[in-house]
Amino acid sequence: MLTRRSFLAAGLAAPAAAKRNPRDVRIDTVSMSEESYLYRTPIKFGGTVVDRVTLLNVEVAVRDRAGRTARGFGSMPLGNVWSFPSKTLSYDQTLAAMQELAKKLRTITAECREFGHPVELNFLMEPEWLKAAGGAVPKLCALVTGSPFDAAIHDAYGKLHGHSVYRCYTREFLREDLGRYLGAEFKGEFLDRYVMPEPKPSMPLYHLVGAVDPIVEADIVKKVGDGLPETLPQWIEFNGLTHLKIKLNGDNLEWDRDRILKVDRAASETMARRGTRQWFYSLDFNEKCPNVEYLLGMLRQVKERSAAGFDRIQYVEQPTARDLRANRQNVMHEASKLRPVVIDESLTDLESLVLAREMGYTGAALKACKGQSQALLMAAAAQRWKMFLCVQDLTCAGASLIHSAGLAAHVPGVAAIEGNSRQYVPAANKAWEAKFPGIFEIKDGSMRTGVLTGPGLGAVA
Question: pLDDT averaged over the chain?
Fold first, then answer.
């Protein structure tokens, strides 16, 4: 087993000797733009209510050693509330910090003159991206800002070679083994062992039940009135849902317990009416639980009041503070005996994954918003260590949802995918719905991810 100490001693940042590959590319040009949308209804997480989103769109042109060129596209929400929480800075200030950082990352990316595979190029550039962020912007926030640049490079690479980029993670394309990126334990192993070249045909969709979302009709303060569902039973009927992600507050045990039970009652009544016999929940505290005892007590009370509801809990997302080193007392060993406990906000590199395992976490949340390269590498490590895997959302819309869905569909062990832009910001999906109806139109509780076989990341900008 790789421990955090052996990880630190391994010197993983030391670059391996370059291996010239005719399939390598280098970056020619980089451009970026933004789109902003108001949410249809607000969403609450981490104690903050959010009602808008800004998408960062990046276009990259790459060139191979023979001079052939291709263009790639990447997009990601600038999720500043999630990636850059602050008690002193406003929403506009943290968003502005990400926008300013994006300009620096564009310059760094455009100035990279090395040839390589997208994973190799990210390995070279990410340290420079993090330096550009300095101490003012958290590492997680820097990864989110850099993710559309990384995505655009992967997209361009696949398009240049005429393949889905998921067919471009074999040693034919990426000659370096995983030892370069994940340490000696992975020497001699290659990324294609942990990534499927073809997508799963379909995947269940996790629907978000936000902390301020109405569950039943009596909860509605003011109807949106746009023709979309407004209560949980309506959403279940509309999309044929079988997977529900429940946002919780983490600072009021009774409220959290009762929220789960209320969702369970509403879901049970609707599922019975539909003839659905099996469905699942995930619990997301956005790291707000004060300690693991809070989580254990809440789960115990849920089980006492609804054994069937407790049995439907598939996993728990990171319940306590994201700074693992500063909160070593928040071990998850006992909680993980009950359900997989997944590291999310804390997962910013391999070292954090190693530390999380030491602290009792048994699962990892992969996110396209942390970068395609990192998500694939973390997926490889987590699979080798037999961890529970899920792919989580950042209210990804349009191309970013296609990217996230593709990631989930190509990583073995990921059983479901989260996608809530259809609930909160459907306007951002409009331009994409006709091209990818299987992704944006949910009728049987699932995304039809088998359609994601196009070149690059599968989204045509």
Answer: 94
